[in-house]
Specification:
Blueprint: H1 7-20, H2 29-38, H3 48-60
Helix pairs in contact: 1-3, 2-3
């Protein structure tokens, strides 16, 4: 089993994914995490709490 992605990996993957699919930010964190894994942005599904924190950070910085 692969190691869970780090917070920094989740932030990076989320920034890249949101650039091409900004509507994704309206989905629940669990669904966003699954999308990141299913579309090859991360090797394993991240913890939904990490996804929520990453989204908050990206929004505080003004978007993806």
């Amino acid at each position: 089993m692969s190691e869970a992605p780090s917070y920094e990996e989740v932030v990076h993957a989320l920034r890249v994914r949101l650039a091409g699919a900004p509507q994704l930010r309206d989905q629940p964190a669990r669904d966003i995490g699954h999308d990141l894994m299913a579309n090859g942005y991360l090797p394993t599904e991240p913890d939904p709490e990490l996804v929520r924190r990453a989204l908050e950070e990206i929004e505080e910085e003004g978007g993806a």
